[in-house]
Amino acid sequence: MNDETLGRIADALERLSPAPATAPDFSGAAYVWHADPDRLEPVETVSRVDLSLLIGINRSRDTLHANTVQFAKGLPANNALLWGARGMGKSSLVKAIHGDVQAKHDKLKIVEVQREDLPSIGRCLALLRGRPERFIMFCDDLSFGHDDAHYKSLKAVLDGGIEGRPENVVLYATSNRRHLMPRDMIENERSTAITPSEAVEEKVSLSDRFGLWLGFHPCDQDQYLDMIRGYCDAHGVQIDDDTMRAEAIEWQATRGSRSGRVAWQYFVDLAGRKGVTV
């Protein structure tokens, strides 16, 4: 085998086994984790709303904010699962609280991890472990289907294995499901298993590993209108209450639902008609 062939083989092996990821510049406030190749990509501008504009979720807001302040100060804090109705501000709350707390504690960072990158989460933790910064690891819209083994990777964050979860990392996840898996899947596995009580215990118990469960429920009409009025006041959009009420109720009727997301969508349409940039 000649030197040229050996060189090609060496190059191919190097591509298959890339060098370990180097620690990035942690001067920013937000990052997205990518695998293959492993890297933490800085986010210059985080897409978020001001914390004061999140209406109707006061209890969840106050609980998560207090937990985040504790964590930013280097005190014990819990992993948090934000679950419940679609469009009620779960991911918006995580990003808004990070922005609010980070303004006073600049070592608090947020790292978003996509669900499909969960198998590489251990390598991400290795980059963060031992750093002086504090990291909120954020996984949005988390759920697992039948024969989905990604949940096992998540335990690296929640339990940390023999090393334990890094002291400077906490996990915040959002999901439409309280137990992170569909109810019909739970019932199906219970009905077909030899030991029904154990059939789904491993997957269901994953949500038990979150110290905080924060529920988000559909808003009522008054809360929906208050959300829109809050957006209008914050962005200087002028509209009288009667007109806004009539338009907003018609808007929600065409969507077949009422939520913070629907309120924002109506406001975006309203702002555009009024010539206001948001």
Question: What does this molecule look like?
Answer:
By secondary structure, the chain is an alpha/beta fold. The protein folds into two domains: 30-216, P-loop containing nucleotide triphosphate hydrolases (Rossmann fold, 3-Layer(aba) Sandwich), CATH 3.40.50.300; 221-274. It contains eleven helices and seven strands. The protein has helices spanning 3-16, 58-72, 90-102, 121-128, 150-158, 183-192, 196-199, 201-208, 221-235, 241-255, 260-274, and strands spanning 30-34, 39-42, 80-84, 108-113, 134-139, 169-175, 212-216. β5, α5 and β6 (169-175) form a beta-alpha-beta unit. α9 (221-235) crosses α10. The radius of gyration is 22 Å and the shape is elongated. The termini are far apart.
Helices and strands, with pairings:
Blueprint: H1 3-16, E1 30-34, E2 39-42, H2 58-72, E3 80-84, H3 90-102, E4 108-113, H4 121-128, E5 134-139, H5 150-158, E6 169-175, H6 183-192, H7 196-199, H8 201-208, E7 212-216, H9 221-235, H10 241-255, H11 260-274
Parallel strand pairs: 1-4, 3-6, 3-7, 4-5, 5-6
Antiparallel strand pairs: 1-2
* Low-confidence parts: none
Mean pLDDT: 84
Task: Supply the number of helical segments.
Answer: 11
Give the second-level CATH assignment, the architecture of the largest domain: 3-Layer(aba) Sandwich
Radius of gyration, CA atoms, in whole angstroms: 22 Å
* Helix/strand class: alpha/beta
Which range does the strand content fall in? 5-15%
Name of the CATH first level of the largest domain = Alpha Beta
Number of strands: 7
What's the number of domains? Answer: 2
Shape: elongated
What's the helix-strand series? HEEHEHEHEHEHHHEHHH
- How would a textbook summarize the main sheet? 7 strands, mixed
What is the percent of helical residues? 40-55%
Distance between the termini: 65 Å
Briefly note the CATH topology name of the largest domain.
Rossmann fold
Describe the strand arrangement of the main beta sheet, using strand numbers. Answer: 2-1-4-5-6-3-7
